[in-house]
Design brief:
This protein is mainly alpha-helical. The chain has one domain. A hairpin with a 5-residue loop joins strand 2 and strand 3. Helix 1 packs across helix 5, helix 3 packs across helix 5 and helix 4 packs antiparallel against helix 5. It has a two-stranded antiparallel sheet. Strands 2-3 form a two-stranded antiparallel ribbon. The protein is built from seven helices and four strands, in the order H-E-H-E-E-H-H-H-H-H-E.
Length: 158
Amino acid sequence: MKGGAQFNTMGFDRVIRKNISALAGIKLKVGIQKGATATGGGLIAPYAANNNFGTKTKAGKTKIPSRPFMTYSADRIVDWMGSAAFYEVVNMVITGQITADQAAARIGSKTVDITRRTIRDSALYKPNAAMTIKRKGHDKPLQDSMSMFRNVKFVRVS
């Protein structure tokens, strides 16, 4: 007589595959989106890019030092995506507790939060020059009008 046990998933494996597929197709873009405007008007993306990459004068002297908040944010987001909190969101989709769209919203919100915290973390960046501190009245890089901070968003791309 042949022995053994039989495990009937009753289609659960199909549901898991479907939920994983729905989640796998999601792409988010996090940062300062095209068309975002600064406090008082004007596009914020060029300003943010100048701060992220830095600028030089025609003579090659640093005008604005590089403060790569997007690179630092990306690194922190990758770290978070290896955490138990991220896998909890993924698991909730796999088990059908939330939809892939709800997971995308949670993940997007968390990545925006990480990016905003990175902008505020002035210890990461070269300090403002003395004349900049005098003009702005504070020594926190990337935080003059908070336009970059407020304009960090996520969008779902297809």
